[in-house]
Amino acid sequence: MSSNPNGLILGIDPGLAGTGFALLSGPGTVLSSTTVVTKPGPDGARLLAITRHLRELLTDGARGVRHTRV
Question: pLDDT 10s digit of each residue in the chain, 70 long?
Fold first, then answer.
């Protein structure tokens, strides 16, 4: 993987019960890595929870919070 000078890299491990996200600014630089777990119920409510979590992750990542070097 080459450097990404134009922006962030978003990795998504999809799932309705548990969705994993990783936000990177380049190879070896993880800005954030999280998992959102939803409760059983209507799909719409679960998808809304995942969307809200993703928006928060992207907003925080754009500000450069939670830098972790790996």
Answer: 455 455 788 899 998 899 998 888 888 888 888 899 999 999 999 999 999 988 887 777 666 554 443 3
Q: What is the model's pTM?
A: 0.67
Give 65's contacts (C-beta < 8 A, 6+ positions apart): 31, 32
